[in-house]
Amino acid sequence: MAWPYFDPEYENLSVKINPPRVSVDNFSCSDSTLVKVDSMNKPGILLEVVQILTDFDLIITKAYISSDGGWFMDVFHVTDQYGKKITDPETINCIEKALGPKGQAADWIKSCPGKRVGLHSVGDHTAVELIGRDRPGLLSEIFAVLADLHFNITAAEVWTHNRRIACVLYVNDDTTYRAVDDPSRLSFMEEQLNNILGGTEDDENVARTSFSVGVTHMDRRLHQMLFADKDYEEAGGRNDKEYPTISKPMIFVDRCEEKGYSIVTVKCKDRPKLMFDIVCTLTDMQYVVFHATISSDGPNASQEYFIRHIDGCTVGMEDEKDRVIKCLEAAVHRRVSDGLSLELCAKDRVGLLSEVTRILRENGLSVIRAGVSTVGEKARNVFYITDAAGNPVDVETIEALRKEIGRTMMLNVKKAPLSKKASQESSGWAKTSFFFGSLLEKFLP
């Protein structure tokens, strides 16, 4: 039987007829830049746009979303990391190109280095995904095994939540610096990592090591992994007594009878990438956002979403409402790090991460979140740490870390507890908060 011919370009025809219109406006608002996006509506477009703005390290202070019907119309109020307008012509041009008809969000995501989990091997890197039960010293053991197996880690993102750990790692051979395609070598790596994670063939939900398939965004992938792992379940998770300084978000699910929407309201402490994390989770739960209003009032954020399930239904039974609330609470907390932040910059070398995490483990510290990147020969790493019981790190331990780690790399400590005046003076430039750019400038010749 002959099937009728289908032109693969037909799906993009509407976009070609009505291409996206993007404008960056620095005149309408006194304290932020307005990014306006008008385009044909399509599944997942809101997440794509928010993802791109987030990848430019923009802070979304307000947003107005409307995509009911065939058209998508959004206005985002954004600033840079310092709360300033976006005035750099090159950055503005990149935003317009990424969101506009020639860039297309999905195409830009694929070309954005370090922001995706690629095919089995991506260029000169192999992407590895790990998920399992978290415990003190686990990350140190993972990095040590990879170093022993002669894998070099060029980039990594690590999240922990509700005593689960999810990692996305980019690795290559430590001699050739090329992606590793040898099936036997990858299989042995998988076996060794599963042994550390505690996974068994009888219980695949305990731990898994896998090589990514498809192309997606690194943070996006971590949300998907933890959501599939049901990290939002309360059993064995963190509670208010264990983490008293983490404010619990206020989340409500109501029904708009007149328009046939469910209204999801999230009120919590504001932070970068909050909107991205919430939209990710709603998308993973197969809900479509038709309208939304996002605003920040000082340290607090208020976000309201008008949603329906992908099948057109609203949020129905109480069990479904409870699940939405739990999943959004998890989305808010996954990226929250209430512990101490260590920012390190050093010349990249094989075993660097293994050495640093070993020192943290030997000082009785646990890594609750981490970000690893390599730019040329320079490694830039951020570790969010607590003690083994989840409590803040004391001053004496901080000073010991400065003395031991500071001999071989630049170290900055953020969120450090108050110490004696002498201790503060001895910390030097490392006692202040700053962004990686300034650290790298100090380190580079």
Automatic annotation (TrEMBL):
Q: Which InterPro entries match?
A: ACR1-12, ACT-like_dom_sf, ACT_dom
Question: Which domain of life does the protein's organism represent?
Answer: Eukaryota
Please list the GO terms describing molecular function.
amino acid binding
Q: Which PROSITE patterns match?
A: ACT
Alphabetical UniProt keywords: Repeat
- Taking every annotated instance into account, which residue ranges of this chain make up the domain ACT? 34-114, 127-208, 341-421
Q: Which CDD domains match?
A: ACT_ACR_1, ACT_ACR_2, ACT_ACR_3, ACT_ACR_4
Give me the segments passing through the membrane: none
Function, as annotated: Binds amino acids.
User: Could you tell me what this protein is called?
Assistant: ACT domain-containing protein ACR
